[in-house]
Structure formats: C-alpha cells, structure tokens
Amino acid sequence: MSIKVFSPNVESVEIVQRAEKRKRRARLYYMRHPKHDMRSVENIVSNYLRQKSAVTGQRTSQGKKR
C-alpha cells in the first residue's frame, strides 16, 4: 500500500506500529519469504482507530461533551 505523503488529501500522519529494530544487512533476501511478510495493514489500522475512539468516547462521557 502506498500513499503520496505530500498529497493535499492527506491531513496528518500518525505512527501506529513500529518494527522492533531495523535490520542491518546488505541484502534482505530472507524478507521475501511469507513468514516475514506483514500483508495488509488494514487490521492494524482498524484496531488503532477502535482504541482511539474508545479513549475519546470515555472523555466525552465524563461531562466534557457540550
């Protein structure tokens, strides 16, 4: 999945998940194996948005809602 970062449609960028540590090798051929493939990140993003909405929902239920 690629997104043009400087597109006018992009409002902000949030880091949802980071890798443990950057791999330092000349050629990362082993990353081609299915074991190392992250596949789609839609599940990670949906979990993040669900947690974020739960946190903001708790704040509004405490009386800060106008």
TrEMBL record:
InterPro entries the record matches: Ribosomal_bL19, Ribosomal_bL19_sf, Translation_prot_SH3-like_sf
Presence of keyword Ribonucleoprotein: yes
Domain of life the protein comes from: Eukaryota
GO MF, one annotated term: structural constituent of ribosome
Keyword terms, alphabetized: Ribonucleoprotein, Ribosomal protein
Gene3D superfamilies xref list: 2.30.30.790
Protein name in UniProt: Mitochondrial ribosomal protein, putative (AFU_orthologue AFUA_5G09490)
Family membership: Belongs to the bacterial ribosomal protein bL19 family.
Database matches in SUPFAM superfamilies: Translation proteins SH3-like domain
A GO BP entry: translation
GO cellular component: ribonucleoprotein complex; ribosome
